[in-house]
Amino acid sequence: MKKIISAVLFSAAFSLHAEPGFDNYVEQLKVEAAEQGISQQTIDAAFANTQFYPRAVKADKQQPEFKLTLDTYLPRAVPAWKVQQARALYKKHYPLLKEIEKKYQVQPRFVIALWGVESNFGKFTGNYNVVSALSTMSFEGRREAFFKKELMNALSILEQQHISPAEMKGSWAGAMGQVQFMPSSFLAYAQDFDGDGHRDIWNSTADALASAANYLAQSGWSNDLTWGRQVKLPDNFDAELFGLSTSKPLSEWQALGVRRYDGTDLPTRDISASLVQPDDAHGRVYLAYDNYRVLMKWNRSHYFVAAVGTLADRISYPPVF
Fold first, then answer.
1. What's the CA gap between 200 and 202, in Å, rounded?
2. pLDDT given for residue 14 in this prediction
3. What is the pTM of this model?
4. Angle between helices 302-316 and 80-92 (to 10 degrees)
């Protein structure tokens, strides 16, 4: 019986690590990394325990079992307990958040909201070895060029010694740390806000939150604007006006009958916005400000933006102090 169990365990372990052609593919990745200037020491350390992740390939191909709507998604993405945690962490980290706001000009509530939506405030950052995950997804081939480029960026991060290969953990797709940056985003936006010489979005709350703020700031964030708001439309509203490609001053949307969700007039500020309706004709409608577009650069999902914006709004109302 022990021999049978051992054989089963060996087979399971072998299936996790062995994939026809994967080892040869990794050897080619090493050659390409060296050609791009990555040191042999970094290459040897990064690929020392590389393995193929069948779960990553499955996750990439898996489709949702049913279609979500914002009405079913938002209560899951922004439950009451997460709002309470967000408010408590806002208060706990308020001095740090104000320092970050002063440098990057991003409201603290949006930084906390991104932190909460991306990783449940740093609790769920992914347990995949990033080099293995990106090697797996590159080998899988559907988006080889994208994942191979991200792999080379990950090796550059290791070369710069911001994190060790063993600590470089993330999602099945290679998104890393408390703010779930892809390696390219890390290289472009990650910050060493605690001044220890490392941009550590895995273990340093200061670095993680400052990196999120820097991403938004560099992407065009306006510190004097919110993200958007849910609105009501008049009957028989022209559906051709929906979409981020159409932008109008709030005064024009007001003239067209658009109102706040409670039925009151829109703000009188001289700013432009677009109308988006992520679901069908019976779903929620939002006025999307320029900061909405910035959040779409982070993640091109209207559901993601609605979750971040909703959580940010609930951090503020009522105020935490």
1. 5
2. 37
3. 0.90
4. 60
